[in-house]
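Cross-posted from the bioinformatics board.
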Amino acid sequence: MSIKDIPGVFTEQGLKTEDLVVNIGPQHPSTHGVLRLITTLNGEVVKDMVPVIGYLHRSKEKMAESRSYFQYQPTLDRVEYLSSFFDHYVYVSSIERIAKLKVPKRVEYIRMITMELNRITSHLLWFGTFLLDLGATSPLFYAFREREDIFKLFEDLTGARMMYNYYRFGGVNADLPPGWIEKCRRFIRTMPEKIDEYEAIVTKNPIILDRTVGIGRMDIETCLKYGVTGASLRATGIAQDLRKTNPYSCYNEVQFDVPVGKHADVYDRYLVRMAEMRESCKIIEQCLDKIPGGDTQNIRNKQAEIDAAKAAAKERGEDPKSIPDLDPDWLTQGQKINLMTYKPPAGEVFSMCESPRGMLGCYMISDGTPKAYRLKWRGASFSNLSVLPELMIGNLYPDLMAIFGSLDVILPEVDR
Amino acid sequence: MNQPVFDFPDWLPRLLDQGISHFGGSVNWADWAPWLTILWAIIVFTLIAVVAQASVIFMVLMERKVLAWMTQRKGPNRVGPWGTLQTLADGVKLLFKEDIIPKGANKFLFTVAPALFFLPTFVFFGLIPFTNQLVAVALPAGALFVFAISSLSVVGLVLAGWASNNKYSLLGGMRSAAQAISYEIPLVMAVLGVVLFTGSMNIAEIVKAQAGPFWNWYGVLLTPISLVIFFISTLAEVNRVPFDLPEAESELVSGYNTEYSGMKFALFFLAEYAALFAMSAFTVAFFVGGYFSPFGPFITELVTHQPADQLTGLSQLALQVEMLFWFMMKTYFFIFLAMWVRATLPRLKPDQLMGFSWKFLIPLSIINIFVIAIEKYMVLPNGQPVMASLPVLQATTVSSWAIWVVIAAVVFGGFFVLMSRLLSEKLEARLARR
Amino acid sequence: MSSFPSPKHDDIKENRVIEGLKAIGQGMSTVLSHYFRPPVTLEYPEVMPDLSDRFHGRLCLLTKSDGTDLCVGCQACARVCPCNDLIQIEMHRDAAKKPVIDQFTIDIGRCIFCGNCTEVCPVDCIKMLPDFELSDFSREALVLDKKDLTLSGEESDHWRLVHGMEPLVE
């Protein structure tokens, strides 16, 4: 009896092999959330990959229909916990556009500073976890050390380290604390050196180069077909950044570049995100210099002067209104709004912003009641994730970590 | 050299004499020599076992502390002063865990696999020459025996993967077997150069041949490339980053030790650290001069104004302690280096791992042996490092060194250029595809 | 739009082996340089973190400077809470038409500490303290009632002082 006689082992084509169906996740140290990938492997080559999502579905869109606008806001932080400010921004700006609310310039600058700081924290976390998936353990701790400093800044500003609930319709919750601008500036000045340190460990490392150069290449048609946005799209060479193509807030008043890649592989996506961190530092520095009103103490002093002048004018018998009020661009709230009973006029608007993962959009239909009629989130991670099977099929299984890490997918945004 | 495999040092009967005369007796040690041999054997084996265990326990804590300091944290510092009882706490915790054997697993193989992985490491602790007298067994073919025995631990690994009845463990076990086999070859070939220099495979002899200050040591001036190849292969043999694919968490859960819990898992864990210690000790013995002091004369020699082989009694004991100190310092330096590498580098993929061994390290070690052979006959006329007797500026010696340096530069340089072109082509091909 | 320099894939003069070793050496020396920096660990609980005044910690009810209740039972906080029925308030009016709060419970176990309630209170009564050590052994113990939530007059004045408000005397 030879091996050829054992039933089922030999076929006409030779030794019979089977494809192995491996279930990766939903609990897995590297899937950045609960994602299930049903992978069909032939040896080490991936023949098919089906992502199964929905493990993190929390009905965020439906919740908006049963809560008033202000009541719904705190849940926005949790739609995508790494870019809370961006989620808030699209929601608040969509209402501001429907209701045509005035937004003081100081508020826009504060929003820009917080959004760019949030972009840095998100990219830092991505950097740490991407390298952790590849096997290097120290950069995670270095990234978190910087995140800790930024969280301290946020805590001084909003009261919370991660779930901020800071933006309001037409303004922000509270003004910057006195001295915050100086603290922020001191931090931002040290940031580029820290980014250089991270790059020294990673960028030219031959192991990283071998694992990421030429792996997971996306061509432009695939990107456009799947709606991939963000750093993954910019790594293909297209300079698509909503801050430049459709400027919102006050982004057209600050100078920054949009880093673009060449080969659209994992390595280029990494380089694009590191460059984006540096650009964010530049934006923040400019905003800190140009913010209308400067430090809060400055505004308080000015307000005290104006009050004293008005009181003096009243005593003299003159009209206190002749003394000019504080510059309206220095305020932190455009119009007085009763948050509990706020009813924007009926309308629909699609508001978008460039979140760290790509184009984040909020399509809102309001019908004049205190609750939204329909709220639809366009999450960047959903589109970025859908391109994963296309990238993986035909590639080796060990490349999954590098490719999936480089797409920067956060599962809460996929499932909402 | 005709050194008996096992003998006792002369300070042992003297020390015992002092103790016994304190109680008013005297012993004729010539009659009692066989008992002394046995006593010395017991002392040495016990000491080595204690040193091995203590080192392993210390290394677990050292790894966590060193990795923490490199990331600006403090390591464990709650359990015991400066965290020293942490490993004990971990061991006790693992003891209390439930011993799970998966349903379809082969019970006997499942239990035997960790032991089979663990035992060879402890066998070759006996070969490490901690000092010139504190070596349990000075086998004439020690170097060969070490690598023969270390291959047995691969069997334990594969058994662990197979016996777990888990496809991830099986894949992990297969990968680690392939990895271990691939990296044994450069490991042995690096040592081959050193054996060529010494003319003997006896590890104690190899250390003795490196007597003197640091420029006499093989890995410093004569063959630094061998040292680098050996160290890299050590990391691969012990399954440490960047070669820790078999146990990588983010890839296939935990590879061959996925299904293990409790004390069996502790055995794998400790065996890995014991293997790291043993291989670092061999790095030191083969390449970094073993127990010799880097300055040349030992501190004990300087203090007592006597050369080492004439010291007796307590000063000899002090010399032994000093030699052990130097040996341990150097071993822990290499262990620190391994941990430093772990903190920095990412993991290699399986094809990268195999490619690195077969396509880079093995050709490099073959070329290395070629260069070493030339070096031996040009630079070391009598098999001894020439620099042992400075001033060394004899005309023929200098010109021999010069010619050899040129040959080595051309050969290695050409190899690096060729490798660089091949690597570039590979990356280019990947970028040009699709 | 800018394109940063990607690694020189096609430069023969640059030897990949040597550059690779150099890069690894650079990475290792960077990691080693962190060895000598002071650790950033905060040894909690011996050392408490330095929290800001605006910290979203435990909810509390301020009182007037003399300790009498400030809450008017308007249910504004309950209506803006995203968790729907987290804040339960029962009140009645006494003979002089002044509001008297019978029940004011907040389930801290379900609270998300967003701060919505603190913003809409018309009398600045419900506020947040920088207290984050709220764990307990049962879920029922996490339901704080009016007695647990109310601060004394002095504590309320201290809170107001820290946040730049005047003491409430009348």
